[in-house]
User: Which sequence fits this backbone?
């Protein structure tokens, strides 16, 4: 028997949605529901091993080949810029990247270099480069909405779902950047060595999304 296909799942909501997807395919995911403190879990009668990790680590594990596949948000893929193969849009975890600023501010008006706060400096930089704009980017780890309120930045680039957090803090979307959802990604070498197994799984998933 081949060694199990190892799949890294992003902990939290994407983990739960992926487990639902796996169960709809008939995979036994009891080990994930009863994981306790274990981080590597057998699924589908041991044909698959699930590894639970933070989003950035999912990319790292897949890129370095310790996991064959991963389920991670497009936001992390865009920010990390890892050497991985994107196989499928899984359709859940939907949201978007957006540029936001204080309500009523004319963000694109005036002169001078704008300052942008973001947890996603690469995404922000690429967006403004595509517009031919020179900006200063400040990386924020916590609530990025604070930066314009404290006048640290002119705007923010962040993930937006409903926009209610922006509204409550006197901010508004200036421009949508890109839509985001969960993606199935693969290691480049695994795609060659385990192509048949991966393709079979992909075809199964396609019937459910």
Assistant:
């Amino acid at each position: 028997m081949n060694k199990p296909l190892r799949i890294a799942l992003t902990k939290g909501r994407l983990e739960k949605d992926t487990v639902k997807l796996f169960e709809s395919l008939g995979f036994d995911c009891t080990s994930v529901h009863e994981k306790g403190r274990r981080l590597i879990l057998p699924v589908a009668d041991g044909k698959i091993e699930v590894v639970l990790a933070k989003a950035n680590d999912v990319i790292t594990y897949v890129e370095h080949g310790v996991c064959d596949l991963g389920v991670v948000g497009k936001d992390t893929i865009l920010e990390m810029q890892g050497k991985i193969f994107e196989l499928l849009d899984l359709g859940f975890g939907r949201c978007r990247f957006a540029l936001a600023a204080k309500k009523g501010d004319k963000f694109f008006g005036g002169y001078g270099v704008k300052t942008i706060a973001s947890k996603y400096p690469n995404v922000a930089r690429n967006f403004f480069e595509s517009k031919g704009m020179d900006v200063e980017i400040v990386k924020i780890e916590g609530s990025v909405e604070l930066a314009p309120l404290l006048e640290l930045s002119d705007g923010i680039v962040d993930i937006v779902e409903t926009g209610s957090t922006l509204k409550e803090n006197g901010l508004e979307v200036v421009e949508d950047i890109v839509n985001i959802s969960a993606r199935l990604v693969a290691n480049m070498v695994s795609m060659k060595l385990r192509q048949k197994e991966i393709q079979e799984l992909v075809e199964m998933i396609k019937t459910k999304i």
User: Anything to note?
Assistant: The chain has a mean pLDDT of 95. The longest strand covers residues 171-180. Residues 46 and 128 are 46 Å apart (CA to CA).
